[in-house]
Design brief:
Helices cover about 45% and strands about 15% of the residues. It is of the alpha/beta class. The chain has a six-stranded parallel sheet with strand order 2-1-3-4-5-10, with helices on both faces. A three-stranded mixed sheet has the order 11-8-13. Strands 6-9 form a two-stranded parallel ribbon.
């Protein structure tokens, strides 16, 4: 059976991907900066891959955050992700990795589309709030395409929506809206606050996928998908930030009110993936509903919240 290396394998998605591969009997190794593997250093990355000799490399590594974090650290986000992607393609090719599996954010799609369908991936500019993250990830795809044209390099590129679940960041600046809202609402209940602030109008529509479902989809795609064209993984369903906030409020059992700071950016108005290609190619669909996933995540955060205080 093939040996799998998960880069970023100690992170939120990466750790779940490692577990999903292990659950199917694969030999899996997790690597990250935590274990001394910094993909921004090409020579060190190449030396590591020559020792590890994986058949498949799954890239879950990224320098990423929500809108607030993107606004605070645009240079670091852009440069780190550009270096990471550039080095990864060169090193995986040089070290004879048979297949490269790359995780892509949905923000690489044009920002004004109502539905993110794979044939439209190049059909317009990204939303400016995510440009410094999305552009390096799109450049990675172009580099992989170039290596395929010249060397027959095999890679697949999976576009995921926002993820959530146990062991998320739950940081009010670094995390995406769902994790940040769970922490804010739980903290408000604990300290008896009557109001929680939310950036923007609350109107943007977002799609969310439970992280264990995402990991299962990554494993199936690694096994079954063979094309370089991007493949969406998700539910194809979304809800507004206002609706999401009310779901979290109900799950937590908090009775306060939300205050919307409309001076803050909303980001793209709508981010929903078209998942027809996924259903046809993989014969798969995520299993955990948003209601159930929020309930599980709130329960987990309640049991571990002292780690975040």
């Amino acid at each position: 059976m093939e040996k799998i290396l998960v880069l970023g394998g100690h992170g939120f998605l990466g750790a779940n991907v490692v577990g999903a591969f292990e659950g199917k009997g694969y030999a899996v190794e997790a690597a990250s900066r935590r274990t001394g593997v910094d993909a921004r250093d090409e020579s060190a990355l190449t030396a590591f891959l020559e020792r590890a000799r994986p058949d498949v490399l799954v890239n879950c590594a990224a320098h990423v955050g929500g809108i607030a974090y993107n606004a605070q650290c645009p240079v670091a986000i852009y440069e780190d992700n550009l270096l990471l992607g550039f080095n990864l393609i060169r090193a995986t090719f040089r070290c004879g990795v048979k297949k490269f599996v790359n995780i892509m954010p949905n923000c690489t799609y044009p920002g004004e589309l109502d539905l993110y369908s794979e044939p439209q991936w190049w059909d317009g500019p990204m939303h400016p709030t995510v440009l410094t993250y999305g552009m390096p990830r799109k450049a990675l795809w172009a580099q992989a395409w170039a290596y395929q044209q010249e060397h027959g390099f095999r890679s697949i590129h999976l576009v995921l929506p926002n993820l959530y679940g146990p062991r998320d960041h739950f940081d009010v600046v670094r995390s995406h809206a769902l994790g940040a809202l769970i922490r804010k609402v739980m903290d408000a209940k604990r300290t008896r606050l009557e109001e929680v602030e939310i950036w923007g109008t609350g109107r943007p529509i977002r799609e969310w996928m439970y992280v264990e479902d995402a990991a299962e989809g990554v494993v199936l795609s690694t096994e079954r998908y063979k094309e370089i064209e991007v493949l969406n993984l998700g539910s194809g369903q979304g809800c507004s930030i206002r609706e999401l906030a009310e779901m979290i409020k109900s799950s937590v059992g908090w009775n306060g009110n939300f205050v919307y700071d409309t001076s803050r950016p909303d980001g793209a108005p709508r981010k929903i993936l078209d998942v027809e290609r996924m259903k046809h190619r993989l014969g798969w669909f995520p299993r955990v509903s948003l209601d159930e996933g929020i309930r599980r995540t709130v329960t987990w955060y309640f049991e571990h919240r002292d780690e975040y205080l």
